[in-house]
Design brief:
- It is a single chain.
- By secondary structure, the chain is α+β, with helices and mostly antiparallel strands.
- It has 2 domains: 112 residues, Roll (Archaeosine Trna-guanine Transglycosylase, Chain: A, domain 4), CATH 2.30.130.40; 78 residues, LON domain-like fold.
- It is built from 5 helices and 6 strands, in the order E-E-H-E-E-E-E-H-H-H-H.
- A 5-stranded mixed β-barrel has the order 1-3-4-5-6.
- A hairpin with a 5-residue loop joins strand 5 and strand 6.
Length: 205
């Protein structure tokens, strides 16, 4: 089933259950965020193929990756009449099938939703990734600095999909690689790819 949703194109993407901080000051997005907050509706975050498209040019259609993620507003702070700070949480992934201009210059997307990751326990050979993130969380918790961790609780360290998504959003990867990980339907394969990418990064060092 296809649904039309407002889109918020960004140079970086969003993964399910991920935390996204936004500072809103453009008129087109002030209206969007205010409406979504008041009506408790999500909007779609899609990653730009060309970072230059983040600045809107009249008549130019942004080039977007085809898989995005819903963003649900969890915190809303109206700092000034025309300046909002919001914190969003990633929801369902979606496939973008069509793009069209909408009110106030906000792009609208025709999307079909992708299934949630199935619950799949982290196997022993990938436990090192869970242990590493678990130590970071425990250390910040001990220091009373969990607010520095850009991850929503609860922490599903034993689940392949949740764990893979936390690494995918935090690692310094290309937009193409992040998109590939977001598109991957198998959470185990996604986590295996994360381990391989992290090992490649260590080899480069």
């Amino acid at each position: 089933m296809t649904q039309i949703i407002p889109l918020f194109p960004l140079s970086h993407g969003l993964f399910p259950d991920g935390k996204l901080h936004l500072q809103i000051f453009e008129v087109r997005y002030l209206n969007l965020i205010k409406q979504c907050h008041q009506q408790q509706l999500p909007f779609g975050v899609v990653q730009l193929i060309n970072d230059n498209d983040e600045v809107q040019v009249p008549g130019k259609v942004p080039t977007l990756h085809q898989v995005g993620c819903l963003a649900h507003i969890r915190e809303f702070d109206q700092v000034q009449p025309a300046f909002f700070r919001v914190v969003c949480q990633g929801g369902l992934r979606f496939q973008l099938t069509d793009l069209q201009p909408g009110p106030y210059g906000v792009w609208q997307g025709a999307v079909t939703y992708l299934p949630q990751d199935p619950e799949l326990a982290v196997p022993n050979e990938l436990q090192v990734l869970a242990d590493k993130l678990g130590k970071v969380i425990a250390s910040l918790q001990k220091q009373g600095e969990l607010d520095k961790l850009s991850i929503f609780a609860p922490y599903y360290l034993d689940q392949c999909g949740w764990l893979a998504n936390r690494y995918a959003e935090a690692m310094p990867l290309s937009t193409e690689m992040k998109q590939q990980l977001l598109k991957e339907p198998d959470p185990l394969k996604r986590l295996q790819d994360i381990l391989q990418l992290s090992q490649l990064g260590q080899d480069d060092d």
